[in-house]
């Protein structure tokens, strides 16, 4: 699930997983953080969801995925779309 809050020069985007497919840690990784899983880990919330908010500049298209502690990757069904990557899998696409 993605939530966008407009800002003067971009948007605050909240990446949220209502039901997480893993019990370990999960991060959102993408071209906005050099695909580094240590930059935006999702935090567990009291309602059982996990989320993190990221400020992103406007006027760009971003590619991202979620990376679980066990090494599994998964896309966000609420993203603006999906596209193939160089590894013959898909990335989620977000337009800000």
Describe the structure.
With 96 residues, this protein is mostly beta strands. It has one domain: Immunoglobulin-like, CATH 2.60.40. The strands form 2 sheets. Strands 3, 6, 7, 8 and 9 form a 5-stranded antiparallel sheet that branches. The protein has a 4-stranded antiparallel sheet with strand order 1-2-5-4, with no helix packed on it. A hairpin with a 2-residue loop joins β1 and β2. The two termini are 15 Å apart.
Brief summary of the model shown:
The protein is an all-beta fold.
Task: Looking at this protein, list some descriptive labels.
mainly beta, Immunoglobulin-like, four-stranded antiparallel beta sheet
Fold blueprint:
Elements: E1 2-7, E2 10-17, E3 26-30, E4 43-44, E5 50-57, E6 61-68, E7 73-74, E8 81-84, E9 90-95
Antiparallel strand pairs: 1-2, 2-5, 3-6, 4-5, 6-7, 6-9, 8-9
- The total of beta strands comes to 9
Order of helices and strands: EEEEEEEEE
The figure for the number of domains is 1
CATH architecture: Sandwich
Can you give the helix content as a percent range? under 10%
Global outline = globular
* Stretches with pLDDT under 50, minimum 5 residues: none
Radius of gyration: 13 Å
Would you tell me the overall average pLDDT? 88
CATH homologous superfamily identity: Immunoglobulins
**First-last Cα distance:** 15 Å
Give the strand content: over 45%
Number of helices: 0
Q: What do we call the CATH topology? A: Immunoglobulin-like
Helix- and strand-based class?
A: mainly beta
Specify the CATH class.
Answer: Mainly Beta
Major sheet attributes = 5 strands, antiparallel
């Amino acid at each position: 699930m993605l939530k966008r809050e407009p800002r003067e020069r971009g948007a605050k985007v909240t990446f949220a997983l209502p039901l997480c497919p893993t019990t370990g840690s999960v991060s959102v990784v993408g071209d906005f953080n050099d695909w580094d899983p240590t930059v935006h880990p999702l935090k567990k919330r009291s309602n059982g969801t996990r989320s993190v908010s990221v400020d992103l500049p406007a006027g760009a298209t971003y590619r991202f995925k979620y990376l679980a502690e066990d090494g599994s990757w998964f896309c966000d069904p609420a993203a603006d779309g999906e596209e193939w990557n160089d590894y013959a899998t898909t990335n989620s696409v977000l337009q800000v």
